[in-house]
Amino acid sequence: MEKIVFTDGTKICLLDETGRHERESGFIAKYKENARRIAANNAWKKSGTNAVLRGEYDFSDPYEGENAPAYLNGVTFTDRENVVAYSFTVGQSSGIYYKDFSREKGDEAHVVHDSDREYLALSFDKKSGTMLVSTQKNGDACRQIAQFIRDGDRQGLTDGDSRDDNPVFSPSDGQILFDSAGVGRDARGEFAGYAPSALYALDPLTLDMVCLKEDEKYSYCKPKRDRGGDLYAVRRPAKEKRAGNPLLEILLIPVRIVEAIVGFVQFFVVAFAGKSLVAGKEGGSNPAKGREKKEREIFVEGNRIRVDRELKRNRRSKEKDYGFIPRSWQLVRIGRDGAETVLKSGVCDYALGKEGIYCTDGRHIYFLNEKESRKIADADFCLHLNVDA
Fold first, then answer.
1. Euclidean distance between the first and final Cα of the chain, in Å?
2. Selection from 88-92, 282-286, 303-307 with the highest mean pLDDT
3. pTM of the model
4. pLDDT average, residue stretch 82-101
5. Order of strands across the sheet with 349-352?
6. CB 145 within 8 A of CB 134
7. Coil/strand/helix, residue 281
């Protein structure tokens, strides 16, 4: 069995012939522990009735740091045995670290860390020891491809008013494959959206680019090429069709305003009295813990996905196992003649191995080849994977 590494929430998981091995991101865990400690040490100063009388009550969430959103943006094998690289974002911090699965403690090494820039999709070329990564300045709509070489130097490879993402080396010709979407702007130059993404090949020596596949009806992303020269990608509609009722949305505006007011009052009651407005329901010391669970939403490749809604839709399919990625997101093989073959629906990421293809629908890992399609692992929240090919 080939080694597979994938993300599951904020866990990094390695799957091999001995089973599944999980590790937490050391940086994310330390970040949240420090935030929890700071919040606990300062809580008495800016909460409670005395803080109100002093005019020092802090209306912000005291658990904001501890509950800061944390994401794993990418994961890849490196040229060292059982060592993977992963990119992450937590709070206002982002970076890339190495994780050694052969060690239980002290298993992480720093590559880069930044509070002004986010590090996203990444891949590693074992022959050259070069790591490719897509990176984006905070608050900027544009995204560029950069490479890290062995001595740690970083070199930008792309530039311009576009979102360049998902870089990977092509094993057949050494080119760098990536997807790119133009940035749309209004008359004032403000960001207005992205054009459908297309597939490109970049010569790392001359930096010349060639468009491999584009279609105004579809967005193509995550390009990869096998040793035979066939091109693979995740294809999705440029505009997803979603049924909606504008009249209903308008009618619900007063209801949502009332819900917001009740939630605002609930926060103060819990903060000062330690109890909920609803009898028999305790709010506890953390107001966030008493809030009603909202519909889960995530952004994948710049697209918003309503997790619970997509799970309900995909449940209607004939497949026993289903995930939360829309079935309109399809893994396709693009032949040299341009003909496309759909290999699997509901795919957000995949990897080409020596024995076949590995892909994920968000909740499962699948293995595909010419003879079979089978599930090899379950996950709670898997958006990225890589194979040690």
1. 11
2. 88-92
3. 0.79
4. 94
5. 349-352, 357-360, 364-368, 373-378
6. yes
7. coil
Buried b (16+ CB within 10 A) or exposed e, 36-65: eeebeeeeeeebeeebeeeeebeeeebbeb
Least confident of 27-36, 263-272, 348-357: 263-272
Helical residues (DSSP H) of 11-86, grouped into ranges: 26-42, 49-54
Distance between CA atoms of residues 75 and 133, nearest Å = 11
Please report which confidence band the pLDDT of residue 277 belongs to, taking 50, 70 and 90 as the band edges: low
Please report which confidence band the pLDDT of residue 353 belongs to, taking 50, 70 and 90 as the band edges: very high
**Is residue 307 very low, low, confident or very high in pLDDT (cuts 50, 70, 90)?**
confident
Q: How many Å apart are CA 46 and CA 282, to the nearest integer?
A: 22
Query: Which CA distances in Å does 244 have to 10, 87, 250, 298?
Result: 33, 36, 12, 19
Cβ neighbours of residue 25 closer than 8 Å, sequence gap 6 or more: 10, 11, 12, 70, 72, 86, 88, 97, 99
Taking the C-alpha atoms of residue 77 and residue 99, their distance in angstroms, rounded to an integer, is: 10
Q: How far is Cα 221 from Cα 13, in angstroms, rounded to an integer?
A: 24
**309 in helix, strand or coil?**
helix
Residue 389 CA, chain-centre distance (Å), reads 23
